[in-house]
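Retro notes
What went well: the complex prediction finally ran end to end.
Inputs used:
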Amino acid sequence: MIMQEKWRVYLIIGVFLLILIILPFMSNKYWIRIFTTIFMYTTLAQATNILMGFAGLVPFGNVVFFGIGAYLTGILMVDFGLSFFPALIFGAVVCFAFASVIGYPILKLKGHYFAIATMGVSEAIKQIATNIQITRGGMGFNLPLIPLKIEAAYFFFYFLMFSAMVLVTLATYWISRSRIGYALRGIMSNEEGAKSLGINTAYYKLVAWGISAFFTGIAGGIFAYWYAYIDPPSVFDIGIAVRFIIMLLLGGAGTIIGPFLGAFFIELLTETIWSKFLFLHLGVLGAIIVLVVIFMPKGFMWFYRQRFSLSALLENVRKGKL
Amino acid sequence: MLFAQALINGILVGALYSCVAVGFSLVWGVSNIINLSHGIFVILGAYTTFWLFTFFHIDPFLTIPVSAATLFILGFLIQKHLLNYVVGPSQRSGMGVFMSLILTFGLARMLENFMMGIWSGDWRTVTTSYTGLSLMIGGISIPYIRIAVCLIALISTWLLSVFLNRTRTGMAIRAITFSFDGAQIVGIDIAFIFSITFAIGAALAGIAGSLVSLIYSFSPFLSTPYLSWAFVIVVMGGLGSIFGAIIGGVLLGVIESLATVYVGPGYQQAIGFIILVLLLVFRPQGLFGKQFLK
């Protein structure tokens, strides 16, 4: 019975990936671009999932690694003459290192305080990036254009983001079944308890945040090369962080499929609303967030596990009500 | 001379910062809700003053009670019909505590969109006949408006403190911060008190908004700075502490104002955030005490 279930899951994932691989050959540039964005947000949401879904820490300022990845990729390519892939990897490694350095003091904080501290770091780095020379300040930074034809460039970034998304998902899957995953879940349910069992909680939190930062940096680097122009307000935007955190919550934090559901749903929906009612899109997005938080506080995946029952929805409301 | 001028500017504007922060701090301390739409409430207050001034030529200082009342009602309704649905028993642990955060983010986007839809995204200012006048003392110029703004901000904060210490409702609010379960046992209607608390927080944001409209220009999309000031001040002054919010606000105002003069205007905000992170790491209980931090 369980084996059958497993094969069905593999089949669904296989078909899903196959569709995404065929898709760019069947559609136009508009959709390729939208799907590249969706992959980017899935990558970001999945990377955040590693810390948030398993350890229960909400890194509100995770976008700082997105910005650092983007800027380092750009600076290394323009000022140091590296080619794209080494610059990308180097940027992501720096993100890992940076997360380990600031994580040492910050990860001691709990709940809201951790969330705010990461936000503070992110905003401070944004202001610094606006004011120093090497980032060209608030003028923004121009990256070299990719030496490919336009069509080929679209395909290049589509598959690059696609691979980033698949990689981070595999990493999350691996973590969820490894010692790290169990340690992190232990931290989420009872940190003191986990400590008393001899789990080095500080170390596991650092590793989780480091890996999360690494993949966020990768997404940032690809974004920078893709857009070929970045400036501090756009890559250090807290709005991006809030967006991928909401996607994660909507899909279901702590599940592997959740980030996919959240990112696909929100991005496709925003795109539809955007094209239909330009002036309402923020308001509609806000309304959806409000409804989801009240009716499905644990996300789509948990709703699926409750077998889509309406009584479960009402039960959620009842439990959440004061 | 430059130093003295910067210092006085900092103190005057700092009182306004504390008025923005104190409502945010109260709501966070009492009901554990981080209200991401607090900045939007400030802007709504500013618009209330702007419209009353533009259409009916009412003196901006006289519109303050109106914006306080409007925001009080709005805040009460929001807490009663939305936020009370996400602070219940199942949301008191784990990821649940973040639901109110996400919900207020969604709410902020809705209100932002609403404001832009009906009032457009233009930058607005309130310019009265006495806007440019200022008091000169030994080469330091102090605009009259800023003095008034500072005084009103301090008075409203003081009124809040009187309310919390002298009235039954105020004491019920304080009781919840001491012990949630204990308050429930002695028969305090938590849902109602939460609504009142949120309403007071919003009303204070409304007052601050009216004052903001007098000295800054504003638009629906300029709410973030007020929110981030509130964050920094709350962490500085300690959660739920009124005295801490005043000191924190003035301190932040002075630091920012001195940083603008001596480090460069670009670093003004960066310094605020660096202080925030350092405080969280080294003194998470705030500069002055440890109340309300469990």
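What we learned: The radius of gyration of chain B is 19 Å.
What to try next: split runs per interface for comparison.
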